[in-house]
Design a protein that fits this description.
Rossmann fold; 6 domains; five-stranded parallel β-sheet; 933 residues; disordered N terminus; alpha/beta; six-stranded mixed β-sheet; single chain; PNKP_ligase_dom; Purple Acid Phosphatase, chain A, domain 2
Length: 933
Amino acid sequence: MTDETTDERVLAVPDLALVVLVGATGSGKSTFAARHFKPTEVISSDVCRGLVSDDENDQGASADAFELLHFIAGKRLAAGRLTVVDATNVQSDSRKQLIALARQYDVLPVAIVLDVPEGVCAERNAARPDRAALPRHVIQRHRRELQRSLRHLEREGFRTVHVLRGVAEVEAATVARERRYNDLRHLSGPFDIIGDVHGCRGELESLLGDLGYELRRDEEGRAVGAAHPEGRTAVFVGDLVDRGPDSPGVLRLVMGMVADGSALCVPGNHENKLGRYLAGTTVKLAHGLPETIEQLEHEDSRDPDFRARVAAFIRSLVSHYVLDGGALVVAHAGLLEKYHGRQSGRVRSFALYGETTGETDAFGLPVRYPWAEDYRGRAAVVYGHTPVPRATWLNNTICLDTGCVFGGALTALRWPERELVSTPAEKVWYEPVKPLVSEAPGGTDGRPLDLNDVAGRRVVETRELGRVAVKEENAAAALEVMSRFAVDPSLLAYLPPTMAPCPTSSRDGYLEHPAEAFAAYRADGVRQVVCQEKHMGSRAVALVCRDAGVARERFGATTAEVRGVLHTRTGRPFFADPALTDRVLGRLAEAVDGAGLWAELNTDWLLVDAELMPWSLKAEGLLRGQYAAVGAASRAVFPGVLDALEAAAGRGLEVTELLARQRERAADAEAFTEAYRRYCWRVGDPPEDRAGQSAGQLAGRSAGGPAGGAPDAPAPGADGREGLGGIRLAPFQLLAGQGRNLALLPHDDQLALIDRLIAAETDLLAAAAGDVHAGGAAAGVEVGDAHGVATPGRGHGLLASTRRLYVDTEDEASVAAGIQWWLDLTAAGGEGMVVKPVRAGARTAGGKLVQPGLKCRGPEYLRLVYGPEYARPENLERLRERHLPHKRSLALREYALGLEGLERLAGAEPLWRVHEAVFAVLALESEPVDPRL
């Protein structure tokens, strides 16, 4: 082609590649790069030379310049960025280093050669002041080296070579970026990923039928295609052939599905070997290949072109696919994260065969490197290749080869549902060399938590709030708690976030008032809120399983009969007695079953956020050391002080003001004592003994008189069934179940489900007591509070209801009703309420995440927080200067982390991924913030 040619040349370049521009100085490489690539994609040797020496023409700095160029190129390729090297690159040694760099990062090297006449190069250099003195022999040497290189570029390792000859062809060229063959991120499914078939056509047809696919048959009744009426796509992990009874039938069906667009397929090592055999390469006839060859020979007489179509099909298969926005990777033998979406012989080899240790086992088979044990990638990797007795998740990877041809089953994974569907083998078609056993721990036995997962400064990606950072010192504090005091990590799936208080009130006598909470949500554009009674107990998270088997299989519980866990907001066991924990979880599981939620939510386990009462049950040390001590001291001191002052006043001394002040202090101290006593009672009393007793009577008994004391342990059988007398669990949110994050359900739906739990327990207790007249409908709802708002019955069972009121923040009458409801609640001794948007995960019009809840505590309860005399005007004025922004930020960050952990848990992601979010919540709890907020 001559210089006068103006026909357009389209240069195909993969969207991830190392593009090497090759040409003599002055050939226009920099101009070409600037025209066709982004400035950030181009790394120029001249620029690097200037960076290290302040002179782009200083040839003495070339060694350092190219070291810098290779370093920058390596960083870009590691990050998956197309990279263009702008240098002469006319010498084979310089190109060799770049090809090695491409291989190191498993990207394709592409050469674009600018073959421009010597005179043009000389003219361009002469026009540049910094190159005007460049000797002509330099250009001539570059041209000679270029001409010698042209015939060898592909042999050097360049996958594609584009040669542009002459100025006109260079100027007419355009660069077209091509999506990599393995990059199918734009396809989101849903998918049905099918494990190794190995010629088991009958089982494949049955499995496709179970998955809902409709088979298409030819005139001879052979399956030649299948499609799903809902548009699902089947993805085959390879090893379609060998060992089984009908490899041609399997190929015909899969090839038809791929041709119709209803399936994708990656190659297995058995297809790779068959493809080489069909291409005429000498291969070892073993491992089922002879059977496949024999079956193909029978096929030749019926369909002479079948072999050619099979060979073309195998050649077309891509080593692996990246699907669903990068969330899913399918490869026959699995794939390390650094290979996802990459293209090289090394990637293809790993995808086909995995990696071996170089050893052989007792059966003479290669020992494979257990890459899945160390996998930490965010993409789920689905693979086959090594048969296992059952498919289980291991660190976000799953092997679907369940040995159908060996008498096991043919297994498929529904994605994104993460559901497994299996069809048992019709018979043992091929005797396995060794028994089907898992070579690596799977499912709940996955890789143990690693210190590197949580140590040091961490940044956790969340769906709701983006990147959340954890400081190193906070991580160290969390590690101390987690390693010494927390429950079994496999059962620790969630830690509740802290909650911000409502904005500070300026009303007389109030530090917190619901009017500010309603106004805050109104300002955020949240109209519908729910006010929930705030129980004064201890926060508890319950992981309850249908039975102990679910706890073992799904969560890896190590104790034989444990059906879950009950832990505090910092991950510590709630009860020291495992039997008591099991009784609480057992009752909760019965209520879930009675309410029909196992079936309705399609789950065998539930994660529940709740409040466990009485407060004295868990806060005994706090009661003894802080609250009861203050109450005891005031009762010991104030009577004598008041008697003395009253006697002095009787003698005519002027102590009126002092006496009044001390009487106020005594009253404040008495109010302080009454405030904490409301939340204490003796556990173990039968319901009939507790009924009718005032809160003060119960508190007096449980607190052991003026000084306070330890609550009694629950008496066995005190509630008539399981020894839970006096213990109350108030669930207020279902967090997660199998395959589903329930925390984003609207709160009205949440509370309706919880009402059903409470009604179901009421029915269970009534049935146990032989009360045929009691029922959930009657016992589950109590009507007629101060505003006629229906609230669930409070009963005498384990489960306690949470009273609530819905408020429209833009309706003055509704807001007034909400304020009055809070006033009545707190006047009756209640702690206060939590105001939440009805719609969970609410955002402002600008997309900012809204506080998930604002606590509004009553004035009497706040005595416990700020001291007996906090409500005096001078103290209130000082306390109003509290700094809320940090607390609000902390609440939002922990909320986002909690939701992220629940998403990962529901998505069956590996334990370390779930714990990344759980641990971060605990770490943030050690941030310095006023604990009274």
